[in-house]
């Protein structure tokens, strides 16, 4: 049916969803980024092993075709037999933001082509230390950091005043769903109508999106278990979180 099918954001797409498209295509162009997050799945590791055993997949095949661990882009990268072509021109973020990601996650290979923006007198990247701690969210689900959330809302109030009339977009990104919900509640109660101008969401949901000014709330604190710190500190998650900002982070 199609001479060419193009799958964009393929690193966030599961391979199973792409099968009906690929079956109907003479050629395919699969575009993605292995340094970003793959799709979210509720399929457990044991259940995936049971499915692999049922269909007689050896361990190597089971790993290659893993729904949990292999995105559409990752599958293509294994099967095509050639190295991906790196799209190395970066046009989104200001250099101070993009340079860190280039050096940390792409071996310094990105050519930063973003026009210099002088909207702000403040630094492009600003770090604020909040001496808070984290706890589990409602019903023991996910994680929150109340001190950090309040500091974020206080910062948002200042930012919305500075951005008024400039036509710039504002967002907050965090690894944890419970922190998103806490931030949304605080924004609605403390920012009034200004809350409508701020997008607050998880890193996974923000992937593929961007804002002029982004606030990153990592949530991590002294009480967080090591496995949750590992989740928040996943290099792909950090890469996505920091690269959502166009003008200021």
Instruction: Tell me what portion of residues adopts beta-strand conformation.
Output: 15-25%
Query: Main sheet: which strands, in order across?
Result: 8-7-9-10
Q: What is the number of E strands? A: 10
Radius of gyration: 20 Å
Shape estimate: globular
Mean pLDDT: 92
**Ranges with pLDDT <50 over ≥5 residues?**
none
How do you describe this structure in short?
With 249 residues, the protein is of the alpha/beta class. It has helices at residues 15-23, 45-54, 59-64, 72-79, 95-105, 146-163, 177-190, 203-206, 226-232, 235-242, and strands at 2-7, 25-30, 89-90, 111-112, 135-136, 143-144, 170-174, 198-202, 211-216, 245-248.
Descriptive overview:
The chain has helices spanning 15-23, 45-54, 59-64, 72-79, 95-105, 146-163, 177-190, 203-206, 226-232, 235-242; strands at residues 2-7, 25-30, 89-90, 111-112, 135-136, 143-144, 170-174, 198-202, 211-216, 245-248. It has a 4-stranded parallel β-sheet. The protein has a two-stranded parallel ribbon with strand order 1-2. It starts with a strand and ends with a strand. The model has no long low-confidence stretch (mean pLDDT 92). Helix content is 38%, strand content 16%. β7 (170-174), α7 (177-190) and β8 form a beta-alpha-beta unit. With 249 residues, the protein is an alpha/beta fold. α6 packs across α7.
């Amino acid at each position: 049916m199609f001479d060419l099918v193009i799958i964009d954001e393929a690193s966030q797409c599961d391979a199973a969803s792409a099968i009906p498209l690929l079956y109907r295509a003479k050629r395919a162009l699969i575009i993605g980024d292995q340094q970003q997050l793959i799709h979210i799945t509720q399929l457990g590791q044991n259940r995936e092993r049971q499915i692999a055993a049922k269909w007689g997949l050896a361990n190597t095949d089971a790993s290659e075709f893993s729904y949990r661990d292999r995105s559409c882009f990752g599958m293509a990268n294994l099967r095509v037999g050639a190295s991906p072509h790196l799209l190395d021109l970066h046009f989104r973020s200001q250099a101070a933001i993009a340079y860190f990601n280039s050096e940390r996650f792409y071996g310094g290979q990105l050519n930063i082509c973003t026009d210099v923006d002088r909207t702000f007198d403040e630094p492009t990247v600003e770090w604020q230390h909040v001496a808070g701690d984290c706890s589990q969210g409602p019903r023991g689900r996910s994680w929150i950091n109340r001190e950090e959330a309040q500091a974020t809302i206080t910062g948002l109030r200042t930012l919305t005043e500075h951005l008024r009339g400039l036509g710039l977009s504002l967002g907050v990104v965090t690894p944890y769903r419970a922190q998103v919900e806490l931030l949304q509640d605080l924004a609605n109660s403390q920012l009034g109508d200004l809350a409508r101008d701020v997008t607050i969401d998880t890193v996974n949901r923000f992937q593929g999106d961007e804002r002029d000014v982004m606030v990153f709330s990592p949530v991590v604190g002294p009480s967080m278990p090591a496995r949750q710190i590992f989740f928040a500190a996943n290099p792909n998650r950090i890469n996505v979180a920091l690269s959502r900002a166009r003008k200021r982070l």
